[in-house]
Amino acid sequence: MVKSSTPIWVLIFAFMFGLEQPRLILIFIITVISLGVILTVAGETKFNLTGFLLVLGAAIVSGLRWSLTQMLLQKEEGMNNPVATLYYVSPIMFILMTILSLIFENPFHVFNTSKHFEDLGTGLETFLLMLLGGFLAFCMTIAEFALIKNTSTVTLSVAGISKEVVVISLSVLIYHDVLTPINLLGLVISISGIAGYNYYKIRKSSDDKKVRYHALPSHKNESLD
Predict the structure, then answer these.
(1) How far apart are CA 21 and CA 44, in angstroms?
(2) What span, in angstroms and rounded, lies between the C-alpha atoms of 13 and 61?
(3) How far is CA 143 from the centre of its chain?
(4) pLDDT reported for residue 223
(5) How far apart are CA 31 and CA 36, in angstroms?
(6) At what angle do helices 153-175 and 24-40 cross, to 10 degrees?
(7) Which sign, positive or negative, has the C-alpha torsion 37, 41, 46, 51?
(8) Whole-number CA gyration radius for the chain
(9) Number of alpha carbons in the 13 Å side-chain half-sphere of residue 209
(10) Using the 8-state DSSP alphabet, how is residue 217 labeled?
(11) Where are the domains of the chain?
(12) What do you get for the CA distance between the two ends of the chain, in Å?
């Protein structure tokens, strides 16, 4: 539920870095979407302070990360190419993730004891599945960077919520997961918020076009001699 606050942090950092103009309607829409997601995933949970702080920190850092990514992609002197951006940020990401994995996960012990690596055939199958997952993650990251470059981090955040709504809906249809009335209410609120954001972006785009049109210099028709 705490992770559902990510869109709010994305919006806060977008305001802080000047990526979005503070508008009450935008704040209202993002708040509605976040509230809807919280209700959608609401359930009986046991509160743990450490877990709460870790998830809250992850949500805050996620908002900061995407705002910095937008600044990197959209500035003229920045790396305004999604592939180039990924090329430069991937090495440090790989190094940090490897260090954290060695500290907390002990991967060598996992490789030696896991049934997924018990023989050559199983190990090869596991490796291919990991390779497929990595390729899909690569494509997803490129798509996210391209979306940020052409829109904004707030739009990416709303798109992420849309993905969660689709996943929850598919889980109900395919795996017959049961949603409580509160979960259903949250789903409706989330969809309404997403629709409201789309309407807001369409109106904003239309208004921007009108402003640019009226800002064009007028030229008087000159008669030819």
Answers:
(1) 38
(2) 10
(3) 11
(4) 46
(5) 9
(6) 30
(7) negative
(8) 23
(9) 6
(10) P
(11) 2-208
(12) 74
Q: What is residue 209's predicted lDDT score, i.e. its pLDDT? A: 65
Structure tokens at 189: 């609120």
pLDDT of residue 151: 87
- The amino acid at residue 44 is E
* pLDDT tens track for 102-127: 998 888 888 888 888 888 888 899 99
The pTM score is 0.78
Cα–Cα distance between 76 and 185 in angstroms, integer?
43
**Residue ranges of the chain with pLDDT lower than 70?**
1, 44-45, 76-79, 208-225
Question: How far is 28 from 34, CA to CA, in rounded Å?
Answer: 10
- In angstroms, the Cα distances linking 87 to 21, 62, 94, 114, 187 are 30, 20, 11, 32, 37
Closest CA to 160 of 206, 193, 199: 193
